[in-house]
Specification:
Radius of gyration: 14 Å
Mean pLDDT: 92
Helix content: 25-40%
CATH superfamily: Fe-S cluster assembly (FSCA)
Number of strands: 3
Number of helices: 5
Distance between the termini: 29 Å
CATH topology: GMP Synthetase, Chain A, domain 3
Order of helices and strands: HEEHEHHH
Strand order of the largest sheet: 1-2-3
Length: 146
């Protein structure tokens, strides 16, 4: 049974990322908006899981940080970790020189703090990315090779 059998679907922007464009919040959003939801035949943008206003880019000394904060469609979403990993994988493939920070929006999931801790744990994320089945799932969702 699906966690959310009838999600609200929003209209997509239709905009696409443009190569060579300066990397700012809009460009980062365009990289992740078309990631497929693991449960429904919609994108993360269409389900309101990712929104442009929840994306930021900070310039730092030595490295830049791209941050995407997402909100699962329901507070008990069992696939929130996979959604977070798919966003992180897509960002890391598009922005190899950036530190990519992906988090669940505060209090939008029953386990948001634990999921954020896992998504911030480099070793855990690396272990997930070494799992062949997980890589296949992430490649399907992001429509790119990881």
């Amino acid at each position: 049974m699906k966690d959310n059998p009838s999600p609200t679907v929003y209209s997509a922007t239709g905009r696409q990322a443009v190569e060579g464009t300066e990397t700012g919040p809009t460009q980062v959003f365009l990289f992740v908006k078309d990631i497929k939801d693991p449960e429904h035949p919609y994108t993360l943008e269409e389900l309101g899981v990712v929104k442009e206003e929840d994306v930021s880019v900070e310039r730092g000394d030595g490295y830049d940080v791209a941050t995407v904060v997402f909100a699962p469609t329901v507070p008990h979403c069992s696939l929130a970790k996979i959604i977070g990993l798919s966003i992180k994988a897509k960002l890391e493939s598009e922005l190899p020189r950036y530190k990519c920070d992906v988090r669940v929006k505060d209090k939008t999931h029953l386990e948001w703090e634990a999921i954020n801790k896992q998504l911030g744990d480099k070793e855990r994320v690396a272990a997930a990315m070494e799992n062949e089945e997980m890589v296949r799932v992430l490649e399907q969702l992001t429509q790119s090779f990881i």
